[in-house]
DNA sequence: AATGATTGATTGATGCGTCAATCAAGAACC
DNA sequence: GGTTCTTGATTGACGCATCAATCAATCATT
């Protein structure tokens, strides 16, 4: 079965399998063989398309960021007031496509990966800057010069909720997570 | 007996070396040989005392929790009002003995370990329960029934600050971290 | 036939855990 | 006070398993 144009399908399957496998294992201790098996291909093919295990991880990470970025952009497009923009960013952070068991576990492990792999760190830094920029933009009209500090608090809180969800045996509760962060936001801007 | 009483010294050295080595590597991908070398002993001796690599990790984790627990207890002993107790818990979380580069990195990696190792998960759950209990006890007189939710927010924020510090190339800034969390606390209880 | 897709087999490296052997500091005994 | 016995401390070497990466061969499509 050497269908022409299989490459993008295979790549996508391998990326998806990587996230699922990291989620299942709860760590980066997954073999290329396991990833490939879940994607329905051989380990050799994974190497053929990505070149190395590191590259597979980076591609998976990038995919998570792309999905999240799209979610944020979509939500922001519907917001008109600063307050709505704030809500949009927070809600996007806990959207069904991102706040999922395997993706949450992958996030946590990408934080670890970022400590070792410059490319992973770079990607994570980009995410941080984007988030901070989005939050600051929405916060400036509401809290003025405090925007920077408030954005840092919101960012840390979102990350913390993710971290704790990774440990919890319970299924992710989007509503509760969103409410917790939005409550914090309210208190920061209403005072 | 040869060099009577070497065991506790060796155990402590190996535990300390484990934390440092995890901090250096930024991941759990450290070999027993590396840990042992840093501790100034052979890999075989580490196995002799701990039995397995997993057990070494657990001992290191337990040590981090013990140090942190002592810090909290010490700070709480000096506090008399609920407000002071809150501050004590937060300040202890960012005390110099816990909010250090290698320990922060170890924390992050223990979160990952907890996803795989039941014993690590158990220890982390104990820490979470203790923190929540301490916070709730101090919060109840201040915010009544909201104590539980407020404690969850503070806990997530502390974890988030740790997570972000793990990624930051800058040296840990205790003052800034403490201020950020205490500011959040103020807004939660003053409203 | 040519080209891309795909894989099984292989390899080289790495690391955990084990084991037999050695070392050194006391204890027991004369 | 010296000799021998005992026992914990300590290690080097190695077996065994695992895994990333490579390669040559096969298969399907055009």
TrEMBL record, chains A, B:
Pfam families in alphabetical order: TetR_C_6, TetR_N
Q: What is this protein identified as?
A: HTH-type transcriptional regulator BetI
Q: Which UniProt keywords apply?
A: DNA-binding, Repressor, Transcription, Transcription regulation
Outline what the protein does. Answer: Repressor involved in choline regulation of the bet genes.
InterPro entries named in the record: BetI_C, DNA-bd_HTH_TetR-type_CS, Homeodomain-like_sf, HTH-type_TetR-like_transc_reg, HTH_TetR, Tet_transcr_reg_TetR-rel_C_sf, Tscrpt_rep_BetI
Q: Which residues bind DNA?
A: 31-50
Question: Pathway listed for it?
Answer: Amine and polyamine biosynthesis; betaine biosynthesis via choline pathway [regulation]
Q: Offer one example of a GO biological process linked to this entry.
A: negative regulation of DNA-templated transcription
Organism encoding this protein: Rubellimicrobium thermophilum DSM 16684
